[in-house]
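Two quick folds needed for the group meeting slides. Do the first one here.
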Amino acid sequence: MRDRVAEAVPALVEAAVAAPSMHNAQPWRFVHHTETGVLSLYGDPDRALPVGDPDYRGMHLGCAAALFNLRVAAAEAGWEAVTEMLPDRNDPWRLADVTLRESVAESPDRALAELSGAVKARRTSRFPFSDERIPPEIFDELCAAALLEGARLAVPSGWHAEALVDLVHDAELHESASDLMQAEIIAWTRMGRAGEGSAAEGVPSYAFGPRQHDVKVPVRDFGLPQDSRRRPTATFEEHPQLAVLGTESDRPADWLRAGQAMERVLLVATRDGLATSLMSQPLEWPELRSMARDPASRMGFVHMVFRLGYGPAAAATPRRAVADVLTVV
């Protein structure tokens, strides 16, 4: 049994690291304890974003998304992944322990296993989407996916949708006025210049997408002003289709639930043929984050804003090798 678990772990971690994270910082590491068979997920403080993510909420979301991918891969391989969140109160960086058990059924969770194809297909798209509206039944499915992981997904309309777009633009103004925030983004951005940094992390220039012709859609522009002339411009959709993900409270355990819900929503959307984009800009500023929620909603705290629609496939961003994120002890 231990040998089978040891053989399975690298493939599970490979699926896990396909998850999204802020600026593609990939703030996770895994430790496989061979004596017990436990696979532990840790947040990596060396990959923290102290300006954009000072409370490490974004790190928890990214690591939890990786955990969800691992659960999907385990189900596809016929394992039951028994997960314990925050197992060591003396080590806040130890975010989860996973124990693999052989399933007596064909698959321990068929709904999870069916998302395995979407793990590698999922992309963050910064390209224009069409004006085709998403059917209500697909939004219902995405809302159900969030609930399965203990979070809520809401589809804003009217004033709330307009307010979210305005908040993203307000966040961009905050960002442009902050030298520290600009420096942090630049540190995780690669323009393709020689010696610019690791090719296995960060946001490469080919993933920036075109510059917006009319700046109506809340897509983060990673390109620097001096490099803007190298990128084409495009007209984005007139009315972006947005969704917000949140929880009632705002503790690390909530962040881990929200991160798994975020990834489940993204994978279901990908499987259903949607293009997806994550927008955390207004949530990186406390004074703006509180304004992202609908005050009439039971959603106390917003953790992510999604832009969804139909559009071209985006290129995959790089990932670190399994050997760089997995330690066997």
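Then this one, please, same format:
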Amino acid sequence: MRKIYMAGMSHKVAEIAVREKFYIPMDVKSEALAHSPFDELLILATCNRTEVYVASDRDIGEAELVRYVCDLARQSYEDFAKFFYFKSGDEVAHHVMNVCAGLDSVAVGEDQILHQIGRAYETALKFGATGNSLNKLFQGAIHTTKRIKTETNLSKLSCNIPFLAMKQVQHSFDDLENRTVYIVGLGEMGSLMLKYVQENTTKIFASSRTFANAQKFADVLTPVKFEDRYQVLGQCDVVILCSACQEPIVTKKDFAEAIGGADANKAARLVIDLGSPRNAEASIGELPGVQYVCVDDLEKIVSENRRLRMVELEAAQKILKEGLDEFLQWYRMDDIAKEIHLLAEKTVQSADMECEKLLRSLPEVSEVDRSRIQMMYVRFAKKMVNEYLYKVKECNPLDDVRTYLKCLRGGK
């Protein structure tokens, strides 16, 4: 049986100052998937977690896998190994199911992680980096999560990161209708952020590294060229940063200059940084009148919907357990399935051999009848296989199946 392993870090064990060092660019990820040193590989990287999943015919140790992730991010194993968790076997399956369903997220039940896992899986599949084990695991996790979203109200009560960001904005400004908002970055996160902002104000500016992307939303906002961002920063009450970058796109020095000549009545400013790595230098929060909030800070307000979600969470966990049990049954039966397949083939071969013996003793039988007799033997053998081999595997606990196979082998 091919073993499964994972190593990673998340918002639960590492602050964003650590997590952002493990940002893995798409070109690095693609290269890793195309030339994987493992039998199977999948890389998941979001603003709240970086995790690497592996399936291997050989044993993989914690140090080997953690070191591999550190090498991908070009960080020192000695400095960062303490921030990683490592899981193997059943623990990996349990972890993937929880992560995919949003039950391990800052905002429990949030939808975004499902799309992120879906993209990570599609990318690994595209490079041929996954095989039977990881395919079954991630397909099962995605299917189970979709069931949770369909059969419970958990996602309706969820508060994803943009939702939490909007809550923070509303907490800071109770008159948002009269405030100006500037969104930098219009990818998946920024587009979702825009939907929330639109519900509260029409005074919206937005930038994207590609100006044409910002212009697509010109009917609901004022597009701003990315290089002109500081001209707008000083005019806005709320700045929401959602851009993908490896270096800060808003520095303390330039931001201070941008707001220096602004109207004194707009002294109170909120900067929400949803980037990982962070889009702004955190020190901008030291400037007078500037409140700086990053992803980690949003966790402090997540408890608001927690009570309502608990009822739905119980239903979600029941579905999760069903999905987990289904995968683990398949996973544990993997070796058994191979053995049963070999026994099935052997049974059909034996039937064919017995048929040949019979036909040799009946030389007067025509070729048409010989073919029919042979077909009958094979059909009977396959029926016996289906009735007494495959059904035993599907309907019984692992230990009982092993005992049954042991009896077929004569107790060996």
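Slide caption for protein two: The first strand starts at residue 3 and ends at 10.
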